[in-house]
Amino acid sequence: MPDSRTWDRSSSDSWAGSDSDGEGGERLDSFLASVSGAFTRNTERALRADLRIFVSWCRQHRLDSMPARTATVAAFIDEMEREKAPATVRRYVSSIATFHRVLRAPNPVDSAAVRLALQRMYRIRGRRQAQVQGLTWNLRNRLLEAAGSRLIDIRNRALVGVAYDTLLRRSELVSLRVSDLTEEVDGSATLLVRKSKTDAEGTGAVLYLARDTVLLVRDWLDRSGVAGGRLLRSVRKDGTVGERLPPSQVPRIYKAMALLAGFPADTVAALAAHSTRVGPVQDMIACGIELPAILQAGRWRSARMVQRYGERLLARRSGAAQLAAMQQR
After folding, report:
1. How do the domains of the chain map onto residue ranges?
2. Which of 79, 273, 288, 323 fits a 20 to 30 Å CA distance from 281?
3. Could you tell me the pTM of the whole model?
């Protein structure tokens, strides 16, 4: 394994030496500048947060963060798993790998020691992640019915309707533009999603909006006076419409609407931005929609997320469930 105190990039010697004196932070800033615009905003935000945690931890323990030694990353995993969820620690490791890969440094993550540290974490903590509350059809309708008549309520109805039909992530949802909406003669519509987490180069995807959702969107546009630019926007208390809606507001809107609808506290707490991806998948499975159509709706390349979101419904359709039904038990 290369000694991180003597390793040197072939193209520059500016990365050599120990960063325990604070140089790791400067290298991180250089890294973040080099990748700016190459990833989605959410990915860049996660990289920035994850790597600052790693660099700070290395500085605290007087260890090099760039390039990091295999033993350093393994020790970082062992310490982080005591206080962080396994999925979070795994994301840290992925960010560390990206950090080294972009700067053409030896990748400490690609090693047996790091793989063993991750396996150790999974054996202790397990891999299972908590499932968010799916915003299913019944819950969606309850949110819409309970909303008031203020402009912000009209906006919220449109947001929930669009999110349910399109299964968009929150960053994609708030990036929609009025010009992305194309209404059809039968009252339905399509939406062009220009970029997404899995389509950073902007190939784009066209998604479906049902007729009742189009009515919600049209009501919002007519009442707000929005004729161009961002489709979904912030609304101040005095009714003033802003230029954009921050992605962080999406789950807060769901929770506020759920409180108004009288949802139990535990249901409100379990709602998240992904609720409008989980709920529709559960409804599609319940309605017997085939897997390829579900994958297309959520723009997934594999069935892994569908199986996770619908695991309880799928269990009720398993071979064991079908056998029990045939045995009338």
Report:
1. 23-125, 137-274
2. 323
3. 0.70
List the structure tokens of 249: 């507001």
Q: Is the dihedral of CA 143, 148, 152, 155 positive or negative?
A: positive
Amino acid in the structure at residue 144: L
Q: How far apart are CA 8 and CA 62, in angstroms?
A: 19
- List, in sequence order, every beta strand (DSSP E) within the chain: 181-183, 189-193, 205-209
- Neighbour count for residue 154 (Cβ, 10 Å): 21
Segment 302-315, tens digit of pLDDT: 888 888 888 778 88
Size (the chain), residues:
329
What CATH architecture does domain 137-274 belong to? Answer: Orthogonal Bundle (1.10)
Q: Rg of the chain's alpha carbons, rounded to an integer? A: 24
Structurally, what CATH architecture does the domain formed by 23-125 represent?
A: Orthogonal Bundle (1.10)
Question: Across the beta sheet with 205-209, what order do the strands follow?
Answer: 181-183, 189-193, 205-209
